[in-house]
Amino acid sequence: SQQGEEDPQALSIQEGENATMNCSYKTSINNLQWYRQNSGRGLVHLILIRSNEREKHSGRLRVTLDTSKKSSSLLITASRAADTASYFCATGPGAGSYQLTFGKGTKLSVIP
Amino acid sequence: EAQVTQNPRYLITVTGKKLTVTCSQNMNHEYMSWYRQDPGLGLRQIYYSMNVEVTDKGDVPEGYKVSRKEKRNFPLILESPSPNQTSLYFCASSLSGLDNSPLHFGNGTRLTVT
Questions:
Q1: Considering only alpha carbons, which residue of chain A is nearest residue B98?
Q2: Which residues pair with B23 in a beta bridge?
Q3: Least CA distance to A99: which residue of chain B?
Q4: Which pLDDT value is given to residue B42?
Q5: Cβ pair B7, B20 in contact under 8 A
Q6: What digits encode the pLDDT tens for the residues B4-63?
Q7: Is the dihedral of CA B63, B68, B69, B75 positive or negative?
Q8: A39-72 residues labelled b (16+ CB within 10 A) or e (exposed)
Q9: Interchain pair B42, A103: CB under 8 A
Q10: Min Cα separation B69/chain A (Å)
């Protein structure tokens, strides 16, 4: 069961620009996580935001969460070529869930 | 170094020939999980394990088996592989498996079944 859906599916920007990716989900959540995947490699955890948080920062990453709209956004500021990757949001269907499910991802290309 | 190790990295096999993909983690994590990743379908969970000897089905368990005899190991078994199991497979682990526990992923196993 797909819980999160990222938008857009693909995004191409110039180095130095900001990149924004969105994630929508269907049911109530306790936490939402963002992951990065470099081509063909394993996913890497970026950041976790709790349902009682509205915004969280980590380096050049800014994540927002709007539980009323069931959506989250990931902003990467001052993008670099090394940020080229696919980005996924992941959620669990509720408290105590062991089934973290992932969206289909946004493929970000940062052009040098 | 904390890591999840999958082997092999690449595997080509024929229909019906049993195979095992190994997964091992060195972080003393309670939770381990297998995912497959297919173009247009994203990551789908196959099986997961909350602890030793405790496993449960994910979204796409058909055609797969798992076992968790030791905390660190969680092998994925395809007893009679078919071409529709051609995919990129990932093993992952986390401290608790709950949605507040980040997953650590292996580097993947690219399986081709002819």
A1: A98
A2: B6
A3: B58
A4: 87
A5: no
A6: 999 999 999 999 999 999 999 999 999 999 999 999 888 999 999 999 999 999 999 999
A7: positive
A8: eeebbebbbbbeeeeeebeeeebbbbbeeeebbb
A9: yes
A10: 19
The token duo for A14 is 């110039």
Cβ B66 vs Cβ B58: under 8 Å: no
Alpha-carbon distance of B94 to B102, in angstroms, equals 6
A102 in contact with B, Cβ within 8 Å: yes
Mean pLDDT taken over chain B: 95
C-beta separation of A89 from A67 below 8 A: no
- Please list the ranges in chain A whose pLDDT falls under 50: 1-2
Q: Which of these, B29, B23, B25, lies nearest to B9 by C-alpha position?
A: B23
Query: From chain B, which residues contact A within 8 Å (Cβ)?
Result: 4, 31, 33, 35, 40-43, 45, 48, 50, 56, 58-59, 88, 90, 92, 97-100, 102-108, 110
pLDDT digits (tens, 9 = 90+) for B75-90: 999 999 999 999 999 9
